[in-house]
Amino acid sequence: MSLSKPNRSAATITTTRVDPAPISGICVTCLDGCEGPCEIGRSALKGREMIYPQPFGKITAGAEKDYPVDFSHFNIQGTCVGAVGIEADSDKAVFPAVDCTTKLGADGSINMDFPVFTGAVGSTDIARINWEDMAAGAAISGVIVIVGENVCGMDPQSQIVKKRVVKSPEMDRRINTFKRWYNGTGGIIVQANVEDTRLGVPEYVIEKHGVEILELKWGQGAKDIGGEVKLKTLERAIQLKERDYIVLPDPRLPASQEAFKMGGISEFERHSRLGMVTEEGFYQEVERLRKLGAKYVTLKTGAYRPADLARALKFSSVAKLDMLTIDGAGGGTGMSPWRMMNEWGIPTVQLECLTYQMCERLRAKGAYIPPIAIAGGLSLEDHIFKAIALAAPYIKAVCLGRAIMTAAMVGKTHGRLLAQKAELEGRDLSKGYEGLFAVGSLLKERFGKDFTKLPPGAIGMYSYIDRLRQGLQQLMAGARKFALDYISRDDLVALTREAAEISGITYVMDSDREEIDKILG
User: Fold this and answer.
1) What is the DSSP letter of 264?
2) Are 335 and 269 in contact (CB under 8 A)?
3) How many CB atoms lie within 10 A of CB 113?
4) pLDDT tens, 218-268?
5) Residue 219 to residue 29: CA distance in whole angstroms
6) Which residues pair with 137 in a beta bridge?
7) What is the C-alpha to C-alpha distance for residues 469 and 381, in angstroms, rounded to an integer?
8) DSSP 3-state helix, strand, coil percentages of the chain (rounded to 5)?
9) CA distance 492 to 430
10) What residue ranges in 193-293 does DSSP mark as E strands?
């Protein structure tokens, strides 16, 4: 059975005329005269534009490859005996008593009300449009939101002097939106890739805004190149080319300008450069950020080969980083080249299992192991439990990239529809929010007159996280684990021999054998 679906996908708005050959994805009978609805056919007309999911900038897109092992190949163990972290009393060991808070940072001083955070919300249109909802949602939920790469460089209103950013209204908006609703738990992280470092973004956000958490970025699980966006105007393409970004095709060339004018190309691509990691250079950059005033320094790495995972873990250990986020293949983004997202990198389950093995080696040496977060195609409470358990005790949080953005976008959409209806009917919008959102009355009591100022997407995100919390509490109570630190690998069973072999988690038919012998004699 083919695990991939080449040559046609909803993500590229392509299909085939008849059933495709499983390997190539080409129609079993490719007809001369067909207009070419497949990816190959559309590439014959639009070329490199077809590399990316579409409509670009308006969607998030997740890999559709069916990996041989994923989190569904594990089940969560339950028991009817005892309780860990609370008195084994039926009146006390109730699921609402489960503690889902977590701590990040080398000293454990970053407190989070729930162990999730957003993906990096960077410079794309979909990120910019939904920032207010996600930032406010993170702030009122007590979790972390991440400002992604290239925000200052992509800001049309940025003032750049001698190749250093001195003003960025868009970055200012990002940070101030979060601060407006911040309640003391969670936080805001600002990423810095190659372009951001060159522009002096860390200096800008630390000096102007007092940002405490800076994140170095090696990559993400959806692609192994720098970030990219599409540019719809010639003027914008030229502006970013002048800011020293890679822009394709070169908008300064007469041929490119003519192709754009005639409609042969409808957009330009802006790309970021590849980072070049060295051990000594990494330590120097971490130290530089700390001297600039960063209270916490974190690292985000992608689904690179296992040797690079070892580098990330070792370097983070030596530098005593405050968090390491490991992003597996199979997750999602709105920007990555579609075939790359499906066909490169180590899938999340395998990457996390390798992480566990490497952490055990470091622990045996007495090395410091930073709080680790896992990302890559996760969305609901069972994923959170399994991700924490699979590499316990090292996993302290989970990144929910597309999932959190989906909740925010749906909340925003229904808020807009409700506002339109309220305007037509001439009634108070806040009462509509209370009827629309399950958490509406709760948030109104909490925020009072400021309730109507909350972005509806933020309420949607809060509602989603509230659901995750209760779902996780129920799963944990069933496993009799009443705080996250008590979750262990023994709380999982592998449903297939292959999953057991990859993970070291006991195969379901072998689980509890020693205890069974003690019970039965």
Assistant:
1) S
2) no
3) 18
4) 988 888 887 888 899 999 999 999 998 999 999 999 999 999 999 999 999
5) 40
6) none
7) 7
8) 45, 15, 35
9) 44
10) 213-217, 228-231, 246-248, 268-271
Nearest to 180 by CA among 231, 145, 220: 145
Partnered with residue 271 across adjacent β-strands are 228, 246
Is residue 426's pLDDT more than 80?
Answer: no
Residues 194-203 have pLDDT tens digits of: 889 999 999 9
The secondary structure element, H or E, covering residue 191 is strand 187-192
The pLDDT-based confidence of 330 (bands split at 50, 70, 90) is: confident
CB 286 within 8 A of CB 333: no
The Cα 269–Cα 273 span in angstroms is 13
Phi, psi of 166 (to 5 degrees): -115, -15
- Give all domains of the chain, ordered by start, each with its CATH number: 1-51 (no CATH), 64-227+278-521 (3.20.20.70), 228-271 (no CATH)
Distance of alpha carbon 28 from alpha carbon 14, whole angstroms: 16
Query: What count of Cα atoms within 13 Å lies in the side-chain half-sphere of residue 494?
Result: 19
| C-alpha to C-alpha distance for 102 and 291, rounded to whole angstroms | 27
DSSP calls for 108-119: S-EEESSSEEEE
pLDDT at 332 over 80: no
Radius of gyration of the CA atoms of the chain, in A: 24
Helices 456-478 and 381-390, axial angle in degrees (round to 10): 60
- The model carries a pTM of 0.95
Among the residue ranges 52-61, 149-158, 373-382, 471-480, the one predicted with the least confidence is 52-61
Round to the nearest angstrom and report the end-to-end CA distance of the chain: 45
Contact call for residues 190 and 202 (beta carbons, < 8 A): yes
Contact (CB, 8 A) for 208 and 166:
no
Our CA angle for 140, 221, 142, nearest 5°, is 10
Neighbours of 142 (CB within 10 A): 19
Q: Measuring CA to CA, which residue among 321, 443, 327, 343 is closest to residue 375?
A: 327
306: helix, strand or coil: helix
Distance CA 342, CA 64 (A): 7
